[in-house]
Design a protein that fits this description.
2 copies of one chain form a homodimer. Chain A is mainly alpha-helical. Chain A has helices at residues 12-36, 43-53, 62-68, 73-85, 107-127, 134-154; strands at 59-61, 89-93, 101-105. The relative contact order of chain A is 0.10. At the A-B interface, helix 1, helix 5 and helix 6 of A face helix 1, helix 5 and helix 6 of B. The first copy, chain A, binds a DNA duplex (30 and 30 nucleotides) through helix 3 and helix 4.
DNA sequence: CTAAGGAAGTTGAAATATGAATCATTATCG
DNA sequence: CGATAATGATTCATATTTCAACTTCCTTAG
């Protein structure tokens, strides 16, 4: 209890950390987006490509992809439609569950991925990773992983 | 140089830290948004309110507000229009520069802020701050503040 | 087997975001 | 001073996101 009404306001130290996280999170996402722009991709596009690239047969069920990328089904559906129009992915029916669909990386999508990935990694390094020490990174992971876990579990309700 | 083409891919440790940051950043923003929903506010709305609340005379020039909240002028303009319709802020002309406008907190906006802030802080605590130790927070700030600084300086070009 | 309910995905309309063009005013400079 | 550039902000068009409604197929209890 800090003040009259019982609200525990943030201390200066807490404020600073919180704002830093917030700022980095937004500035970084903008910067990465900008760095992807020359390739005609958005962060969302890229994330889809990464997920598909890393998957068995370069394919994922729409639902799983939605979960993995933290998007709503609807949003993902639109997103995939756009990427389909751009030739990066295609939809394929699912044998085992005829309601289901796979999003599948096309040849062109895979090529794009191989071409863009190095630039993206460079961008992540330049604007984040390489600005931190190994200890920083360890500490960061140690701090944030539990938070992520908490948030994932809290997700969907509360 | 790690591989054939000279790309320095991320090590496992780097990957983990990077993904953790990414995940927290998005999950948290969703969670905070959800916690604001009962009050009819979005994260963006709230951030505007915070900025205005903390400013001299509860007012800020549009440009400054745009910079402070990392939004484009266009986006901020729309945002303020919406908040104006909701009765949270109003626009006022600027004497010294007749091109300029102030966004000003209304009484209702200020009341809203006072009512919502405690809940928002509680939410930030519950989903972030209170999951971290004091040392975590110090380290976080130490790591991220320079990154934020870098990103702010890089911003607008490169 | 079948009806009820749930899960996978899509769709369309409304809300919000982005980017370029525009308008009015102020700054600058020869 | 007057022309030109730059600033502050909005607007219009387009793209993306959101939300609710809907379709199809699957699951399960009776």
């Amino acid at each position: 209890m800090d003040t009259e009404n019982g609200t525990r306001w943030l201390s200066d130290e807490e404020q600073r950390a919180w704002r830093a996280h917030l700022d980095v999170s937004r500035l970084l996402s903008h910067q990465l987006e900008r760095d992807l722009q020359p390739f005609g991709l958005t962060n969302n596009d890229y994330e889809i490509l990464v997920n598909l690239s890393e998957s068995e047969d370069h394919r994922m069920r729409m639902s799983d992809l939605a979960t993995a990328t933290l998007q709503s089904k609807s949003r993902l559906s639109h997103q995939i439609t756009r990427m389909e129009n751009a030739g990066l992915v295609r939809r394929e029916n699912c044998e085992s569950d005829r309601r289901g669909l796979y999003a599948v990386l096309t040849e062109q999508g895979w090529d794009t991925m191989r071409q863009v990935a190095p630039h993206h990694v460079a961008s992540v390094r330049k604007h984040f990773i390489d600005l931190l020490t190994t200890d920083d990174l360890k500490a960061l992971y140690g701090s944030l992983a539990p938070v992520a876990k908490h948030l994932r579990s809290t997700r969907g309700r509360v």
